[in-house]
Amino acid sequence: MSKRTTFTTISPLPEGIPREAVIDFLHNHREMIDLNPLIIERHPIPPPAHAAEDERSLIWWSMTDKISYLPGGLVTGQIEYTAAFRNLPDGVQTHCYAPMGTDIRERWSLAGTLPGEPRQPVELGLGAPLEGLYLREDVELRCNFVMSGFVKKTLKKAHGDLVERLCRKAKAAAAAAAAAAVTANKTGNVYNLDENEKGGDDDGNSIQLSGKPGRPDSRNGNGNSNGYRHQQAPVELE
Fold first, then answer.
1. What gap in Å lies between CA 183 and CA 187, rounded to an integer?
2. Helix, strand or coil, per DSSP, at residue 232
3. Which residues contact 151 (CB under 8 A, 6 or more apart)?
4. Helix H or strand E encompassing 9
5. Could you tell me the pTM of the whole model?
6. What string of DSSP letters covers 121-174?
7. What CA–CA distance (Å, rounded) separates 51 from 22?
8. Which has the closest alpha carbon to 66: 74, 77, 75, 57?
9. Signed CA dihedral, 177, 181, 182, 187: sign only
10. Within a 10 A sphere around the Cβ of 107, how many other Cβ atoms?
11. Is residue 35 packed enough to be buried (19+ CB in 10 Å), middle (13-18) or exposed (0-12)?
12. Tens digits of per-residue pLDDT, 150-199?
């Protein structure tokens, strides 16, 4: 007999992680899959025969999980399954087809309010923070009622580990982007400084600002060529 179970998990995100980094991660299916600690193998596949009509245009992956059936890894096994991915503006939606009639529909979405933004309404009873970003995971699970509790517990633990890895990766990416921006800004300032050290006359000719005296120029034979600073003759006072 199949049992339907639904649950929602809220995972607050640390400060300093930009929205774009989280959305980019959720839309990068390969990276998201690789951060799941259960998955030991994955590869993209064409839509399988069991795909629903509205899922045939989606991105499909075949994945293999290593599952511990008893604490301490005393009894383990592998489960191969397929999943469809659909990107959404605020996250990603997945549909997993696993053995024994196990069907898992998930939606990962980014929500929350950053300082200075209009506060978004928070659904009651979820324990979502009033300020700051958070990931919301909505799961609809259908499987044998005997396995329902085990599958739910395994999902929640694995996805908790996934969120922790996501946070570390997003923080590292944000720090790298900030460092790159500082470096680019310094490079731009040096370039502007070099350009500002050059002067020019009304005709567009460059003038050296170092104060070095002029030397004879082959064009006019005097020491006041356009490429040197003009030397004013001394004035005699009567």
1. 6
2. coil
3. 102, 104, 141, 143
4. strand 2-12
5. 0.71
6. P--TTS---SSEEEEEEEEEEEEETTTHHHHHHHHHHHHHHHHHHHHHHHHHHH
7. 28
8. 77
9. positive
10. 18
11. buried
12. 899 989 988 888 889 888 888 887 788 788 888 888 776 655 555 555 55
Q: What is the dihedral of CA 45, 51, 55, 58, to 10 degrees?
A: 0
Chain segment 68-81, per-residue pLDDT in tens: 876 666 678 999 99
Q: How much is the average pLDDT of 212-227?
A: 47
Residue carrying structure tokens 């994945």: 63
Length of the chain: 238
In the block, tokens 């995100």 appear at 13
CA dihedral 22, 148, 157, 80 (to 10 degrees): -70
Place of tokens 């696993």: 98
Binned at pLDDT 50, 70 and 90, residue 205 comes out as low
- Residue whose structure tokens are 């470096």: 183
